[in-house]
Amino acid sequence: MDIKSIPLNILTPIKGTPLEKNEIINEDDVCRTIAIARFILPDAALRLAGGRGLFKDKGKRMIMSGANAAISGDMLTTSGISFEEDKKIIKSLGFEIKKI
Would 70 be classed as within a structural domain? Predict the structure, then answer.
């Protein structure tokens, strides 16, 4: 299918929506899912998107699990991670930021 870019969203239960009572997914499950996606799609940009702000490290473990891109800033219905914070996370892991 020649997929180049895949946004990875994590459900954020929002009051007043049909999924408001859903539990937040376990971070280990998110990381396993990313690792499997990386294995299946080795050349794709796996882009961290909505929901990673739910986790203490703001997606650092997800990057180490195989995500190699991120959508910075606010999302449609939730606050996101600022570009400056994303840069700090990426650089702290020893990675380089490139535009794609």
Answer: yes
Supply the range of the domain harboring residue 79: 5-92
Residue 82 tokens read as: 């600022």
The answer to whether position 99 is within a domain reads: no
DSSP 54-75: GSTTTTHHHHHHT--EE--B--
pLDDT in tens, 72-93: 877 666 777 888 888 888 899 9
User: Residue written as tokens 């050349």?
Assistant: 43
Tokens of 20: 């408001």
pTM for this one?
Answer: 0.82
Please measure the distance between the N-terminal and C-terminal CA atoms of the chain and give it in whole angstroms.
Answer: 19
Provide the number of structural domains found in the chain: 1
